[in-house]
Amino acid sequence: MSKFLKFTLAAGFAISATAVFAGEFGLGRPALPEEIAAWDVKVMPDGRGLPEGSGDVWTGDEVFSENCAVCHGDFAEGVGNWPKLAGGWDTLDHEDPLKTVGSYWPYLSTVWDYVNRSMPFGNAQSLSADEVYAITAYILYSNNLVDEDFTLSHENFTEVEMPNADGFIVDDRAETEYPKWTGEPCMENCKEEVKITMRARVLDVTPDVEEAEAAPVEAEPVAVAVAEPEPAPEPEVAAVDPALIEAGEKVFKKCKACHQVGEGAKDRAGPQLNGVMGRAAGSVEGFKYSKALKAKADEGLVWNEETISAFLANPRGYMKGTKMGFAGLKSEEDQAAIAAYLSSFAD
Amino acid sequence: MSETFKGKSTSRRGFLRGAAAAGAGALAAGAAKAATPDPLITEPQPWAQGLGEGVDVTPYGLPIQFENDVVRRNVDWLTADTISSINFTPIHALDGTITPQGCAFERHHSGAIELAKEDYRLMINGLVDTPLVFSYADLERFPRENHVYFCECAANTGMEWAGAQLNGAQFTHGMIHNMEYTGVPLRTILEEAGVKTEGKWVYVEGADASSNGRSIPMEKALDDVLVAFKANGEALRKEHGYPVRLVVPGWEGNMWVKWLRRIEVTDAAVQSREETSKYTDTLEDGTSRKWTWEMDAKSVVTSPSPQAPITHGTGPLVISGLAWSGRGAITRVDVSKDGGKTWETARLAKPGEKMALTRFYLDTTWDGTEMLLQSRAMDETGYVQPTKTQLREVRGLNSIYHNNCIQTWWVKPNGEAENVEVS
């Protein structure tokens, strides 16, 4: 062992008079208090970890509407397959229970912690402590757990009672299951008769595997010795390279979680993108744009290949304060492909 | 490339169906006798005359085009989008036990992020003597170990609680993979920081936007948990947590935190979203089990199965499948062809290893009659994989997680198979 290691070993023991263990390798470096504060944001059921702050139901309604409603619905009732946060009371012993914050979550700390660290989806850690208190208050209100004049703060946080707090037991399989299902199993004449009682084909919810198989896996067309007729160009997109549009469709997969385009496209976390190219920024009616985007729109921003590429290259650099939680498209080819793809969708 | 031989791009399944029809007839007559010489033998083929690809054409290789269908697949209707979602390992088309990384199932909560080794930091804080920060290079300087473990999502087979639902082993049992991990025991890292006596739990979280966090009791953390950076000999794939993930042998996949960035020693469980609102198992009376970490013994026949029908007609048939247990090694697997009336003990490809997939085979002869194929695993604790009925009697239909029931495939006289439930 080197002198260095001996030294750190000795030092390790010295520091940790009460410790179970002591450092042996002297690897890593001490974490600074600022670093721990930045990463250790967890909140415990007893309220440990909560920062000072407060938020009321009415503010929560606004903040929720701006940041959460696109997936969770205006009343926390959930949109499509996205989580429902309210309702479902007294359904836990029914068929298909509805598990929401109100009907299922045992600790309010979990709500605060999760909203604070992981939400909104695609723009995590963008909310202030007061906004998180306000959203949490609004979710409680949506579940009829507090009145409309309620204000949640670090001081009254642990006073809130969650309806399903006592609804959980620690894993008891060792008592309730293992003794039953242990021992030499039956090998012969185990049943008198066997009947099929249910078939997956009847339900028919399996994805169409053959369709998946038919999808080309290779992006590049394979060179073919004999010349094949060129596909006739689509008239409406004659100016744009069809291969580029196709490439754009692939790149657009990165956008699909928040943006829809094409027939029937609707606003989701981001606005629908039909006709976006050549359109004034911020002009989809009914979509709640960020202040940053509204400001750019007021300055006369119009989306075209140049502006959309610049935005996508570095969303937060191009538009400080944008709600678009996307790291960006570094490749210029990808940017051009997206522009081409979006150009192929008129209004 | 001057010459490109392009095979007819029939889908594998279409091909198999055709073969099934042909095979059944041909083989019923006994050992096949060729009527005419096989042109694949009598005529020089392009690959036997021209040249293949040189080295370096593909610096990092993918499977040959004929295996294009052996890929992960998604079930669209399960989740709201593909960013916070899961897909399935094509276990019906694999053999042996090691899952190639490229087709090992993915489960993300906010997408697969790209985190470079240079940007990687691992913090250990909380009830420790010295909170520490490690770089990736630091981790490589601790003594490391190699272990093969399965990683199974607690929701694997979760869609089958209420009835036979998805038609294929990939979809019913594909939220699992099995890799050889290289990493540093978590114990070593905890010792490096020095755990205080009041430290009873570790809370582990990821660097992605969901920062998926789970609480692990100290006893497990000091036992066999690995801070892993290699899988199957190479770096982890980004979808599996590059550059560093946690490996929690035998315990539900959600605890195997990817892009591991922080380990905090605490005096209590944090009760994060993933260990309260999710990954808790609701029983019939509405109460829910929490902290159901261990994955119980389970098995499935991977072939024949709905995506892997019998294509060769009667005669020799290899029935094959996988078995595993989060509570130790698999000691025995029995197979039934009649829906559980009678059982035969299958051959294990090699003795079961703790918390790793075990491959079993039943080398048999198929007479062309229908089968209700089942497999039943036993582990070293003596536990026997239960039937779906047995599970439902204890848990009802709403548990979502930890469905380790015996699976039934109905193999029909034409060789096709279907997911069914039997009495």
UniProtKB/TrEMBL annotation, chain A:
Residues 55-143, 243-346 form the Cytochrome c domain. GO terms for molecular function: electron transfer activity; heme binding; metal ion binding. Residues 1-22 form the signal peptide. Keywords: Electron transport, Heme, Iron, Metal-binding, Signal, Transport. It comes from the Bacteria. This is Sulfur dehydrogenase subunit SoxD. It comes from Roseovarius marisflavi.
Automatic annotation (TrEMBL), chain B:
GO terms for biological process: sulfur compound metabolic process. Residues 289-408 form the Moybdenum cofactor oxidoreductase dimerisation domain. Gene3D superfamilies: 2.60.40.650, Oxidoreductase, molybdopterin-binding domain (3.90.420.10). Residues 1-34 form the signal peptide. PROSITE patterns: TAT (PS51318). Keywords: Metal-binding, Molybdenum, Oxidoreductase, Signal. InterPro entries: Ig_E-set, MoCF_OxRdtse_dimer, Mopterin_OxRdtase_euk, OxRdtase_Mopterin-bd_dom, OxRdtase_Mopterin-bd_sf, Sulfite_DH_SoxC, TAT_signal, TAT_signal_bac_arc. Its cofactor is Mo-molybdopterin. SUPFAM superfamilies: E set domains (SSF81296), Oxidoreductase molybdopterin-binding domain (SSF56524). GO terms for molecular function: heme binding; molybdenum ion binding; molybdopterin cofactor binding; sulfite oxidase activity. Residues 115-271 form the Oxidoreductase molybdopterin-binding domain. PANTHER family: SULFITE OXIDASE, MITOCHONDRIAL (PTHR19372:SF7), SULFITE REDUCTASE (PTHR19372). This is Sulfur dehydrogenase subunit SoxC. It comes from Roseovarius marisflavi.
